[in-house]
Request: fold
Amino acid sequence: MNVSLEVLRLALRDPFRIARDEPDRQMTTVIVELEHHGLRGLGEAYPVSYYGETPGTVGVVLPLVAEAVGRLDPPPAEIPGARAWLRDAECAMDAVIGRHHAAKAGLDIALHDAVARGMGLPLHELLGTSPDIPPTDFSIGIDEPALVAQRAARAGRFPALKIKLGGPADLETLERVREVYQGPIRVDANTGWQPEPAAALAPELERLGVELIEQPFPQHRIDQLRWLQERTALPIVADESAETEEDLDALVGAVRGVNVKLMKCGGVGPALRMLTRARELGFATMLGCMEETSVGIAAAAALAGLADWVDLDGNLLLATEPFTGLELDESCRWRLGDPGLGVERTNGGA
Ligand SMILES: [Mg+2]
Reply:
């Protein structure tokens, strides 16, 4: 297996700040190009710093897991065999090293792209997922309330907005956004709230047409998530607390929704199983992303038929990216690519 990695640093259109971090002006991701038995695929590993990953850890782990997958027989060119082979590839990766889910996602996405391209199929057909997908929302980071409102007005075509909270002016921010935007607002505190103030804010959020509250409290404070869920009609959605499928059981009865991301759980295969299991357990499902390029977003979009809420906008936050092929339709739904991810590198790079 021939795998090449490239660390890409791409400027963001606007500074993007979440509750626990300094504002990002650029993002750093790792692009994976794969050749295997004549197949060719593109993948992306966005290192998730919250879980201890960096471009350096991805650079170490990804070649190790690629070597293990390279020892498997070539992937079969029919759907059931190809699905089983991709699952074997995941197991081979997990046998080499635990966790490091973004690195594994990078290879998993490239393998899915390569196998689907080799069969001349769009990824959703290889997976058996529905091409009928919800529209994506658009995310706006923490900033001065007037600036957030300006960005909300600019994003008026999106059927929902995700507003990052956990800063000093949460309520004022939402009031200003509500003046310029009529659709549902999803709020994400990225672990930045305390229980009592959050419970006091909840009725204001309902009044302002907020649709859900994402991850108000730290990853391991399931008790606090449950406490707030018992005090509000709004769904609480676990993101940082819902890293992999194994986290779901502990969240049953504590929160109403979970946010599944390829970079948290290890790629297309793990995310498909996590979404399916979450629905079986009665959760409402969000499909989210990091500040990814079109490569990661196209891979996730193939699973969006399993999501109640789609938050796949990482590439829309970038000033430029060296990929083409992924487009939004007029209703803000991603057009699913064909074959594979349907994403190509543009000449010249970033
Ligand atoms: Mg989140």
Observations:
- The pocket of magnesium ion is lined by residues 188, 190, 214-215, 239, 259 (CB under 6 Å).
- The domain at 2-127 is CATH 3.30.390.10 (Enolase-like; domain 1).
- The chain has two domains: 2-127, 138-344.
- Residues 43 and 109 are 5 Å apart (CA to CA).
